[in-house]
Amino acid sequence: GFFSSNRPGGTGKDDLYHFEISQIPLPAQITAALIAVDANSKIRLPGVSIYIIDKASIKSGKEEISIKSDSTGRLDLVVQRKESLDIDKPNAITDINGNAETVFLSGHTYQLFASAVGYQARSITIDTISRYIQLQMDKEPCLKGFGYITSRGNKKPIDGAEVRMVSSCFKDTLISYADQMGQFKYCLDRGCTYDLVIRKDGYVSGTGKLDPSKPELLRNLNYTLMKPIATETISTGSIIVLENIYYDFDKAAIRKDASFELDQLAEIMEKHPSMEIELIAHTDSRGEILYNQKLSLDRALSAKKYLETKGIAAKRIRAFGYGESKLRNRCIEGVDCSEEEHQYNRRTEVQVLKVDGQVEVKYQQ
């Protein structure tokens, strides 16, 4: 090739120079084993995500890197290439023996990022490539994570629910509160187990357990709380609306996710053998009037049969169906309504026909 220059040592103001470029050898490829171990015990760790960045590529302006950590401490690495989409998958993941294999180019410098559940994110720089590269992972000082609190039946998040985590190690009780999405967060000592007590005004308290030694069981925590069927004293003539005994459209069978309130009713009737009730079922407005009348009676009979399976004598329960005659919202025949609005009309009511004295309603957690 040729180029011009006015550099010193030439014969004129601008001189022409000739040059030749010999073939540049490509860097050698080195296959290396990446070994992830616990920094304390030296036990090899499976499932460690490893991100590998060639710094030569960064200097050339081909990539932009951002590193983010979510609420569990998991490291997310995003590489933006000018000619492609974001890369958010690791280059390697260690196998059951804590090993992963990759290829490096000699003479290049690499940045390695490693992340694993329960461990702090690790970053190391590799200037000299060796056949074996060890990544020592330090455990998080506590196991971080999150769960969700929702309302049983409609599955809506319960904002402000209190979650008390009582340690088996006799340490201070941890308290967390659910946010608007129903999410609560925790940071648990690894050597302890925890008993959970979940409370929210207007709901029956719930319980659960957390075991940090089994992190795989902590990944999809979802606890549900139920509204009580009654918050005031029950006496003869009281009417209780069972808000969460839901039925699918055009069916009389009680859904498996909607029997909790009947369980509460059975518990009350078992404690108060003098109680006799009427079960009154209602449908939504879809379908023929006479058909809905029969369907509501079938639903009331389904609820009665369910109580009988819980040991309540049939003679203490009467069943009636009111069809679509007593809708609770605007969803009359011909009005366009959502499934949730129609479901609100599909309900069962309890009228107390007889009970000795007054019943103070209390619930077991």
Descriptive report:
Helices cover 12% and strands 35% of the residues. With 365 residues, it is mainly β. β13 (162-167) and β14 (174-177) form a beta hairpin. It starts with a strand and ends in an 11-residue tail after the last strand.
Which descriptors apply to this entry?
single chain; elongated; four-stranded antiparallel β-sheet; mainly beta; 4 helices; 365 residues
Radius of gyration: 34 Å
Low-confidence stretches: 64-69, 71-77, 79-87
What shape does the CA trace take? elongated
Main β-sheet, in a few words?
Answer: 4 strands, antiparallel
Helix count equals 4
Mean pLDDT: 81
Structural class from helices and strands? mainly beta
Strand content: 25-35%
User: How many strand segments?
Assistant: 22
Helix content: 10-25%
Biggest sheet, spatial arrangement of strands: 7-4-9-10
Span from first to last CA?
86 Å
Q: What order do the SSEs take from the amino end to the carboxyl end, as H and E?
A: EEEEHEEEEEEEEEEEEEEEHEHEHE
Outline of the structure:
Helix content is 12%, strand content 35%.
Topology readout:
Elements: E1 2-5, E2 15-18, E3 29-38, E4 49-54, H1 55-59, E5 63-69, E6 75-81, E7 92-93, E8 99-105, E9 110-115, E10 122-126, E11 132-137, E12 143-151, E13 162-167, E14 174-177, E15 183-188, E16 194-199, E17 206-210, E18 221-225, E19 239-242, H2 260-271, E20 276-281, H3 289-309, E21 317-321, H4 339-345, E22 348-354
Parallel strand pairs: 3-11, 12-18, 20-21
Antiparallel strand pairs: 1-2, 3-8, 4-7, 4-9, 5-6, 9-10, 12-15, 13-14, 13-16, 16-17, 19-22, 20-22
